[in-house]
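Ligand-bound model needed. adenosine monophosphate.
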Amino acid sequence: MHNFDKLCLNKQINRALVFANFSKPTIIQHKIIPHVLNRNDVLGVAQTGTGKTAAYILPIIHNITLDTSRYQKKSCKTIIIAPTRELATQVFENAKLFSKYLSIRLTLIVGGVKPKPQLKSLEKGVDIIVGTPGRIMDHIRSGGLTLSSTKTIVLDEADQMLDLGFMPDIKKIHKSLPKQRQTIFMTATMLDQVKNIALNFLNNHKEVNLSPKATPIEKIKQKVILVKQSDKLSKLKAIIEEHKIFQSIIFTRTKKRADNLAKALCKNDINSASFHGDKRQSQRNRILNSFKVGKLNFLIATDIAARGIDIKDIMFIINYDLPMQPEIYVHRVGRSARAGKEGTAISFCDSTEKNRLKDIEKLIGYKLKSEVEKSLDLKKSNDDNSTVKKKRTIKNKPFFKKKRSNSKKKKIKKNLNKNKTFND
Ligand code: AMP
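Prediction:
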């Protein structure tokens, strides 16, 4: 593979690449950069952590250096949209890094902070806006931003941006751009139904698909542990101890479960903090920064941290709960093994989650290596201790059981929860 010089990027970008220690392009960069330089519409699909951000940022910065058109007030030449504030901030930092030796006007437009400074920065017009859809729409509605002279739009995590929740804003934003524009979609997962929607936005596009099936990269070792809901906390503590895990992102299904788990871990002297959309932005920034610098060991997160977030050297991802959408699994585990490193993803699956596990395995196209937690291993416990078997037949029922009556359920729950410290 050739190095960056051969891509004919602006010299000052090459200088910044040397500064950033990027010596040669990754495969996705090698394939995408020429298309973006040619101002083609692009649909880029590649596994998480393989360098998608630089694949579009570098040629966009290069094209801006060639653009001699005047700045339009309250406008931008390129707009990059990401689903979360954290991801937008990360992309913004990348843009800053690679335009380090150039005079490029960049602005970050995200929610959770005061809008006035953002409006001020837009007054004279900028080269690149990186932002989240909600706040961008706020500025468009208030007249603080117009996209009538914007030439390029990028949707990072495009499949999520084309999902129902974001779709109305994305449609409006896209409509407010001129007809002659460049549209770039980048994603790690692109299901067929979303792709059909994406095609409506693209014109004569070039497609680079390095991950036709939505699979995690091979460098991630993956394992599922079949476990009872009530045993998840003790199993988690055991795993942390067994693998001597220094840092990990632990994903839960809900914000409340993230809060409760963080509390329970802290009670056990495991340095953790929850991270989700109900936290103030200043808290979110503080927590993420302390995790990045290694002051915080365990980030207990909802799917707000599932996509795009690039934190170096995360070796372990733990799915305390399986995600509701199978593709989120691929994004979550992709927070480890970034930039060619190794990683391990351990997922808990309780009896209510078996269908989610099936969906994940269907999506990634293979069965995950699984292990049955001891308390669920009927045969083993029967062989080990027949007296225990008699007293605790309920506990030793097979893992995925038929529904029980409500009164029975209550009784079982009471038994199982006797020593439980963590409740949903
Ligand atoms: P991304 O998929 O864009 O989030 O990138 C994943 C990680 O790979 C980030 O930490 C990047 O800084 C790093 N990275 C991307 N491209 C390169 C490259 N060409 N050389 C070295 N590191 C890279």
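The first strand starts at residue 42 and ends at 45.
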